Amino acid sequence: xxxxxxxxxxxxxxxxxSFAIPWPYLNKTDVQITVDGAITTDFTWTSSATIxxxxxxxxxxxxxxxxxxxxxxxVTNFTAGDLTAVSLNRAFYQLLYVLQELYVAVTNPVAFAxxxxxxxxxxxxxxxxxxxxxxxxxxxxSWRAMVANTSIVPGTDGGVTWFPLALQGDPGASGxxxxxxxxxxxxxxxxxxxxxxxxxxxxxxxxxxxxxxxxLIGVATADHSADEHxxxxxTVTPTNIIPGVSFDIIALSTGLWPLTRGAYxxxxxxx
Length: 271
Hints:
Elements: E1 8-11, E2 18-20, E3 31-35, E4 38-40, E5 43-47, E6 50-53, E7 62-67, H1 85-107, H2 109-115, E8 119-123, E9 129-130, E10 134-138, E11 141-145, E12 149-150, E13 162-166, E14 180-187, E15 196-202, E16 212-216, H3 226-231, E17 234-242, E18 246-253, E19 263-270
Parallel strand pairs: 8-10
Antiparallel strand pairs: 1-7, 2-6, 3-4, 3-7, 5-6, 9-12, 10-11, 11-13, 14-19, 15-18, 16-19, 17-18
Helix pairs in contact: 1-2
């Protein structure tokens, strides 16, 4: 009876280099080893069921051994007189192993990504040897190795070596300018008062081209009620912008008796 298949996981302990392969395979090239998700070819076969890594995986690292049977090329090409038990078995096992791996893939998203060739190996590095199907990030994009390679920069050969899965787009249009604002007061003084008053608003974000809107609002002060803010004829205007520093608000009393006194509340918005 055929043995069941699931990828085999080991935990690195900083000293172990020998790892068992508990399931059958057709060819040694179908066996893939990853350490913390990165494919490695730095190992040797010590037997048909054991591999030995050149360096012991670090403590806490994850070692995964999985099988990727070739599903696109027949392992046995039958010819006249070649219908033997051995050739039939190899053909059957190829189909069986592919189906087992497919089952693992559709029931395990991580295994599915590996089977589909999306084994992410982190940022591209010129000194790393990449197997076909390895996925890396480079220059704001994601790339899949179409062939095994080393030192080939993604995007330099028209997709022959590295196929772009996702690329960084061009910068978009600038968004709306931030709107800021606040409240202040203009004070016409005491006694007989005045028909003009000025206040300075500190604003480090103001520009020479900034649009500033100002108006009296119905917020009472110690000198005037909210209603007086509505009925008194007071106009306010922004002026004297000093970029990155401040701007002024000039208030003008335009009633029949133009003199007024005390403070009025002013709202300002700058964008």
